[in-house]
Amino acid sequence: MRASKGKQEEYRTISRRTILKASAAMFAAGMLPASAVFGKVLDRTQDQILGPFYPIMSEPDRSGDLTRVPGGSGRAKGQPVIIRGTVRNPDGKPVLGAEVEIWQANAAGRYAHPDDTNPAPLDPNFQGFGAATTGPDGFYQFKTIKPLHYPAGSIGIRPAHIHFDIRGRRDELVTQMYFEGDPYNEKDSFLQSVLNPDALIVKLLSPTAEEPEFMVAVFDIVFRG
């Protein structure tokens, strides 16, 4: 006997619901890309300039802690911050083996670079240049300090930011991460040049019980991997 029109619609609704539930379960298990479940891909993190102060005098520190140097006399000056996040591809899957580099000015706004003419002092206990490789979960983390804004000649005052260079097998992304509440964010031509400036701005979260001195910032990254 043929089902009624109402019953047919009910069966179709149940079928769609069953398929969505099964797809969501497969996505959670890593068997399906996000685009197959939700019909949408994640936006690639927006590009920014490399900048003139990419480190050229040293290799990146791979300890995960830029607030101390081997043989140093103590911790770097400034507000300690943990920068962490997940590197994913546009389908939402974690990227294994992505090389994440960061570099930045110190708490006085000075880069450890021979071309930086800022008269602010260097900090002998601050590394300023680090690298990490993501595991199967795409996770990365650095202990560092919150940088200060600094004068950039005719450009004006650049807001506090941290540079990122993320390299995978098929893609490389150069970007910058900014801090919520910086008075120079709205005036910065580089930050304001992107389609969605807010996506590059992080909020400092309260410290954890394990690291009570470190504020926390989460900066997730999307690129092709």
In short:
Residues 1-36 form the signal peptide. Helices cover 13% and strands 24% of the residues.
**Spatial strand arrangement across the major sheet:** 3-2-7-8-9
CATH topology of the largest domain: Protocatechuate 3,4-Dioxygenase, subunit A
CATH 2nd-level architecture of the largest domain: Sandwich
Beginning-to-end CA distance, first to last residue: 54 Å
The largest sheet is:
5 strands, mixed
Question: Whole-number radius of gyration?
Answer: 22 Å
Assigned CATH superfamily of the largest domain: Aromatic compound dioxygenase
User: How many extended strands?
Assistant: 11
Count of helical segments?
A: 2
User: Which quaternary structure do these chains form?
Assistant: single chain
What is the helix/strand order? HHEEEEEEEEEEE
- What gross morphology would you assign? globular
Query: What is the mean predicted local confidence, pLDDT?
Result: 88
